[in-house]
Amino acid sequence: MGPKTWMLLAAGAALTAACGSGPSSANRDPIRALLSGDVMMLVSFDTNGDLSITADEIDAGIGREFARADANGDGSLTPIEFQSWTNAVLGGGPMGPYRLDFDRNVDNSITREEFESEIRARVRDYDENGDGVLTRGEFTRLVGAARPPVDRQRPRVLNTP
């Protein structure tokens, strides 16, 4: 089995354990949690294995992932490069994040700045206590209790002749 298969198996096992770990309320409903594709990537940023991801590890991780995604090394990502990267790193499919989350000006090219901006916004979404360090507990989202996403206004594209 490849690394992607092992990651998906581990995520499935964790979710199964969470679902069967006990009552979440007086009516004994099982606990249900969500895992997003970006969590798998962010966890890989923990290079020293201390189960927390520091600002330095985030900086290095962003650089590694952009280099991995930029297959032709031209400094920007085409839709095909982005799709290949998301399939390999984020699990692909409906898990997100999606290309237009990164390509805010919808020009079919994701620059390093756009890539970094979106990853850093996602880091802020998970950093519950705002200390700049991500811990495993900050990645857990209970179904029905997920925080709303940070309001990241998408620039308007004007249709001009």
Structure explained in plain terms:
There is one protein chain. The chain has 161 residues and is mostly helical. It has a domain of 103 residues: Orthogonal Bundle (Recoverin, domain 1), CATH 1.10.238. Helix content is 43%, strand content 7%. It is built from six helices and six strands, in the order H-E-H-E-H-E-H-H-E-H-E-E. The strands form three sheets. Strands 1-6 form a two-stranded antiparallel ribbon. The longest helix has 17 residues. The chain is globular. About 10% of the residues have low confidence.
Topology at a glance:
Blueprint: H1 3-19, E1 33-34, H2 37-44, E2 52-53, H3 55-69, E3 76-77, H4 79-89, H5 99-102, E4 110-111, H6 112-126, E5 134-135, E6 141-142
Antiparallel strand pairs: 1-6, 2-5, 3-4
Helix pairs in contact: 3-6
